Amino acid sequence: MAAGPFIIPDKAVLNIALGLPNAANTFKLSYHTSGWTPNPATLEVFADVSNEIAAGGGYAAGGITLANDTLTISGSTVKFTCDAAELTATGGPIAAWRYGVVRAVGTINGKVDPVVAYFLGDSTGIDVPATTVGNKLTFTPNAAGICTVAKAA
After folding, report:
1. Are the C-beta atoms of 77 and 146 separated by less than 8 Å?
2. pTM assigned to the model
3. 122 in a domain, yes or no?
4. What is residue 16's three-state secondary structure?
5. Helix or strand or coil: residue 62?
6. What is the tens place of the pLDDT at every residue in 7-23?
7. Sign of CA dihedral 77, 11, 42, 29
8. Is 62 a member of any domain?
């Protein structure tokens, strides 16, 4: 199944422009059920997000840490991306989910755990089924990055 495109909340654009990604930051990816309805106009920090899947099957509360996050600047375009991340379901399944949320951990620009972007796990808007024991739940960012912010011409 194909994941939906990343959606950058309105307020995240400002945080990204102010230098959200840098070598000192840690970024996490968390998975959330259909009980959460994102609002890109008001979503800014992780406290605005609800209905995280239950810990278990190899998934820890708060999500998984993303590795090798990078910020590149080319002309007036800023791109944020990271390596692929995966979890293997062990000791039980990883729960079904609908949304993935990428956030910075800590206080940045006065915001606690600012959200960078979120996405639908399945572009058709249905839940991604539980990941059964022994199988992998893999997150692979698009080649274009998690988010790209460009100055308007």
Report:
1. no
2. 0.84
3. yes
4. helix
5. coil
6. 667 666 656 655 555 55
7. positive
8. yes
